[in-house]
Amino acid sequence: MVKENDMFRCTDFLSISEILVARAVLNFFKDIQYIETGLSIYAERRIFLISSGDVDTQSLLNDIFSMLKVRNLPQDITHRDVLGSLLSLGVNRNKVGDIFFVGRDAYIIIKKELEAFLLNSFEQIGNHKITVTLDQIKNGYDLDHSYRSFELVVSSLRIDNVVSSVANLSRSKSLMLIDQGSVKLNGVTNLKKNQMIDENDVFSIKGVGKFKFTGVKGNTKKGNQILQLKEYI
User: What's the CATH superfamily of 147-232?
Assistant: First the structure.
């Protein structure tokens, strides 16, 4: 994974499920050091810096990451709009990390290799003209996503059951969406119909939204479970 004469290697941005696999593999090799970061401590998409010796972390971050800032976006612009505009330019999703909103300013974490292209070509989100600037790079930002918290009563933690309740669909319709790949769980679309969700799992439903399951609050008198969820906004 790390060649003998190389100082370091880095991945592209990995999804939650890919991160779990990468950790397991890298922890198996005791002589390999790695740093896992998405710049923000709350980042869900992260890269792995893999080295065979000591490296200057800050220097590496400056070489690998860029942070784009877009100011004063309209209230109706969402994470989905920003990402969709980036992808419409032909940008590879694996080169884009998390997108955070602070007020109406958007912070977009990307691989350094996209910096020049996006500074020149990323000119609008939807019909809204934008100006893109660069922000300082550092590890350990406390940027977090914006959420709407809510509770949901379900009979089980099966993904088809949760999708049905969140999207207000029949079980058969939710199963069809899963079969079509319209539901992602931790970045994975090839899901089993009886797949169970776990605490802190992130799932998205095409055309509906993206959600994070944060835990079970308790049970109803009928034995159903009360889930606590967050919807990304």
Answer: RNA-binding S4 domain (3.10.290.10)
**Domain 1-144 - what CATH class?**
alpha beta
Residue 3 pLDDT class (50, 70, 90 cuts): very low
Range list for CATH 3.10.290.10 in the chain: 147-232
Q: Is pLDDT of 96 > 70? A: yes
Distance of CA 122 to CAs 52, 59, 83, 87, 96, Å?
37, 26, 11, 10, 13
Q: Strand pairing of 132-135 and 65-70?
A: antiparallel
User: pTM of the entire structure?
Assistant: 0.82
Residues 6 or more apart whose CB falls under 8 angstroms from that of 226 comprise 151, 152, 153, 216, 217, 218, 219, 220
Spatial CB neighbours of 87, under 8 Å, sequence gap ≥ 6: 93
* pLDDT above 80 for 222: yes
User: Tokens at residue 186, please?
Assistant: 């931790």
Query: What Å distances lie between residue 104 and 147, 188, 208, 211, CA to CA?
Result: 14, 30, 22, 21
Give the N- to C-terminal CA distance of the chain in Å, as an integer.
38
**68 phi, psi to nearest 5 deg:** -90, 145
